[in-house]
TrEMBL record:
This is Xylanolytic transcriptional activator regulatory domain-containing protein. Pfam families: Fungal_trans (PF04082). It comes from Tuber borchii. It comes from the Eukaryota. GO terms for molecular function: DNA binding; zinc ion binding. The lineage of its organism: Eukaryota, Fungi, Dikarya, Ascomycota, Pezizomycotina. Residues 23-99 form the Xylanolytic transcriptional activator regulatory domain. InterPro entries: Carb_Metab_Trans_Reg, XnlR_reg_dom.
């Protein structure tokens, strides 16, 4: 069931739009089977702490944590409710040698993602209230900061853990309406740089990293203060795909790699004025002699829409309604 879910996710755009069962069908079935096997009860700690590495207890525990991780990444990326509640998600010391260094800490990060998903995969009214509650954002930032402090001495060469951390950090910032463009630019650029590195392994999570970074950079490319650096990041991601680095699949004609390339192409076409190559749209007042004069003396015209662009681009409604994977397909 887990492997069917991963295969469905690799074909992501096709299964999200239909035909064929989406990833949620396989994940839900796998979670239901795991509940039936009582994998969530964690009553065999002494059995999987020692003994055969391929024992039923150890395989069951690994499978459970794979499901927990995939469930949380699916929920936040598609703005869906969790299949597995927090009450069934408890990491214990015996899980560390069982899962290994990087998967153990990815599981910890995934728990933070679960809290974020629960905060926003609710009714529109509740989402609006949560967004404007500074305590929720503060708690999430604090939780993420405590995680960073706990791994600060070990993650220097662990690219997967590094990129996962900046992905979650970017999500926390994206779901905070007070985040400034320059605060978003740093984590998004870090994610792209690490995805382009040959030291970053290809995993079932890579297209999550690329999709959120691209959606963010595309939004920031519409903001004057971050436009240049944002386009550098977008081009770096495009170059990585052209060099066959691969983000999610090795097949160029389908999967998330193609969806990411298509979004980059659309944004580039928008930048040069559309398929016809005409001039790009210019906001009212921009390009006029009065506007140029105001720029020369450092003044802002009442008609200058830079502030409006910033507020609109940092609006999180689309990201919350569709998730970042759904957003790149709009």
């Amino acid at each position: 069931m887990i492997l069917l879910g991963l295969e469905s996710d690799n074909r992501g755009p096709a299964t999200m739009r239909g035909p064929g069962p989406p990833r949620a069908v396989w994940l839900g079935a796998a979670v239901g089977l795991a509940y039936n096997l009582k994998l969530h009860q964690n009553r065999s700690r002494e059995k999987y702490a020692n003994g055969d590495s391929d024992s039923d207890e150890r395989l069951g525990r690994r499978a459970w944590w794979v499901l927990v991780i995939l469930d949380r990444w699916h929920a936040i990326s598609t703005s869906s409710p969790l299949f597995i509640p927090d009450s069934s998600v408890v990491l214990v010391p015996e899980d560390y040698p069982l899962l290994g260094l990087v998967p153990f800490h990815v599981a910890r990060l995934s728990c933070i993602l679960g809290h974020l998903a629960e905060a926003f995969a609710t009714s529109d009214e509740a989402v609006s209230a949560a967004l404007h509650n500074p305590f929720i954002s503060k708690l999430l930032r604090g939780e993420l900061e405590r995680f960073r402090e706990s791994v600060d001495g070990i993650w220097g060469s662990l690219n997967l853990l590094h990129v996962a951390y900046y992905h979650v950090k970017l999500l926390v910032l994206r779901h905070n309406p007070t985040s400034e463009p320059h605060q978003l630019l740093g984590p998004a650029s870090r994610v792209v740089t690490m995805l382009a590195s040959p030291n970053t392994p290809i995993t079932p999570l890579n297209h999550h990293f690329a999709a959120l970074a691209l959606v963010t950079l595309a939004d920031l490319a519409e903001v004057q203060e971050t436009r240049e650096d944002s386009w550098k990041g977008i081009q770096q991601l495009a170059d990585a795909l052209e060099q066959q680095r691969g983000i999610a699949t090795t097949e160029d004609s389908l999967g998330w790699d193609r969806a990411i390339k298509d979004l980059i192409t659309r944004r580039k076409m928008d930048r040069i004025g559309g398929p016809g190559g005409g001039p790009p749209d210019i906001p009212p007042g921009h390009g006029s002699l009065q506007h140029l004069a105001e720029l020369a003396v450092g003044e802002r015209s009442p008609r200058d829409t830079t502030g409006l662009v910033r507020n609109r681009q940092l609006d999180t409604e689309t990201l919350q309604r569709y998730g970042y994977l759904g957003s790149i397909l709009l």
